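Co-fold these.
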Amino acid sequence: MTAVAAAGHLPDRRRRTLWWIASALAVVLGVVVAGTLGADAAQTTGLADRNLGPSWEHLFGTDRLGRDMLARTLAGLRLSLLVGTSAALISAAIAVVLACAAVVFGGVVDRVVSWLVDAFLALPHLVLLILLAFALGGGTQAVVIAVAVTHWPTLTRVLRGHARHVVTSDYVAVARGLGRSGWSIATGHLARHLLGHVVVGTVLLFPHAILHEAALSFLGLGVDPAGPSIGVLLAESMRYLTAGAWWLALLPGLCLLVVVKLVDTIGENARALVDPRSVHL
Amino acid sequence: MLHRVLRNAAAPALLLQFGSWGELFGGSVLAEQVFSYPGLGAATTAAALGQDVPLLLGIALFTTVFVFVGNTLGDLVHARVDPRVGRAGRDDLRRTAWRDARGAAPAPARATAEEAG
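Predicted complex below.
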């Protein structure tokens, strides 16, 4: 197979997948860095330059207070990415712990975890998100916790399925027969097998987390309205859309779409690497 | 081909679609905020921003009922479209009924065996 790949001038599929992941990751990290660098410009108001359209000086135009929209969009994307990342990581941690506990200890623990997953999936997740953000009082921390708590059930289900498959294998039966405790089986055998799926599941959680954070900020329940989150930018733009200021909504929205699509690309390609059968179907 | 593909693919697809019935409320929250429609989604947002706890809890309860109804409808439709799923439930019932009646069945069989032997 390597001979065939070397004969053609295109790199083989595996290498192409790795390149896709690397470039998408580079762009996302670039956005975060640019957002950090442009934080000052995002807050500098210039009341003489209010509501200007896109121009060479202000590539994305200016908003109602004269702030440069490009800097605001990048700062907003950085905030959204940070919140999405932390929420996805917390969610993945909860999912791994619960899935491993349910499978290794079995019995009552398994039933309790399944019941919890069903209970959390009983509510539509945006309604649950609003309930939690409201109960926690709003603000960035509340958004992170609320998004983390709404997204662990689906990942737990997937991980539990994979973990059950591992636990029914021979080497785990041997380990149990040798008297190893549940904890050592979980860390030794399960962790190695689930690591790939956990990474993929976490990366695929990012788009949901980012979009839900934007939705919460759009509704006014999320991060502080003074901070430039993409949701806050979109909410502010709604008032001026009918006045013809299309760049206030379209350009941040497009950037959000592109970043979410990039993170999704990373996740899908990582999944193709970990579980090749899902690609060929 | 449409006949074969559609018939086999329809059952799980319908099950999944009905399972997402509850998500209608999630989507309506954002859409009603953008277009200012006076619906349940706008009521949810207003309740959250206006600290109206009973209304929030009531909407949560109502949407949970919707999710449950959606899932149940999906199961029923799935059983209707895919005959194998529906038959499994009925077969179980028939099997237990047959097992209960087996207590009575061997006695006449033994009687006929004694008659024959």
